[in-house]
Design goal:
Layout: H1 2-20, H2 25-43, H3 49-59, E1 66-69, E2 77-79, E3 84-87, H4 96-107, H5 111-136, H6 143-183, H7 188-229
Parallel strand pairs: 1-3
Antiparallel strand pairs: 2-3
Helix pairs in contact: 1-7, 2-7, 3-4, 4-6, 5-6, 5-7, 6-7
Length: 230
């Protein structure tokens, strides 16, 4: 019975958070599409993604980072273990300068935290899969203990990931603005308009990212609870 109560509470919490964070992927995509029609002509005049990335890394005094573009990748990312930035196919997106700035900022975050996040994320996933499989075969000696461990691990995972993502997301628009002002390919009012758009997009995107991270941890706990009830 206690597992059912915890399960119901988690589902209710997800719903409450979705309302509080005003989650709407559709609205976020619609806003981005409208803004792209306004600003793509301006941002398309800027250098290639690789060149922008290298310039930003130089600005951050971190030129040792490897940079490559992968048109098959769905999202850009920084890989801490290999110290590499992979840029997705964002050529035709007005957000590409901020997106690249975001990944460059990841590269200058605390290496200790970045490596911990990488190692811990894999341990966390491994624990989830092993515990879920053992539960399905009714091989967990103390289900509540394993559930508590999962909850603690989920909290730590969310805490570290949200710190890294929020730090990069908040700073990215400022770095993008500095870059655009220094390279001087746009008028001041154009840059201000783009940064204003980034701010509106980030207001939705930061909340969305934090909700997704929390949802990701909660859904794992919910799946584990369901295996307890099977």
């Amino acid at each position: 019975m206690e597992y059912i109560i915890i399960l119901m509470l988690l589902i209710m919490l997800i719903g409450i958070l979705a309302i509080i964070y005003d989650v709407s992927i559709k609205r976020l995509k619609e806003f981005a599409q409208i803004e792209e029609s306004k600003f793509n002509k301006i941002t398309n005049l800027y250098p290639s993604n690789i060149e922008i990335c290298k310039t930003l890394l130089k600005k951050l005094k971190n030129e040792k980072v490897k940079v490559e573009e992968d048109k098959e990748a769905k999202t850009s990312l920084y890989i801490a273990v290999t110290d590499k930035i992979i840029i997705a196919d964002v050529k035709n997106s007005y957000t590409r300068i901020q997106t690249i700035a975001h990944e460059c900022l990841h590269s200058v975050q605390s290496r200790k935290i970045l490596l911990f996040n990488f190692i811990y994320s894999n341990i966390y996933l491994l624990y989830f899969f092993i515990t879920t499989i053992l539960s399905l075969f009714n091989q967990l000696p103390n289900k509540m203990l394993f559930l508590c461990i999962m909850l603690i691990m989920s909290y730590l995972y969310y805490f570290v990931r949200s710190y890294l993502e929020n730090d990069a997301m908040i700073k990215a628009k400022f770095l993008a603005k500095e870059y655009m002002e220094e390279i001087n390919l746009s008028e001041k009012n154009e840059i201000d308009s783009i940064i204003g758009s980034y701010e509106k997009l980030n207001n939705m995107g930061i909340k969305m990212t934090n909700f997704e991270l929390m949802f990701e941890t909660m859904i794992k706990v919910i799946i584990l609870l369901i295996t307890f009830l099977i």
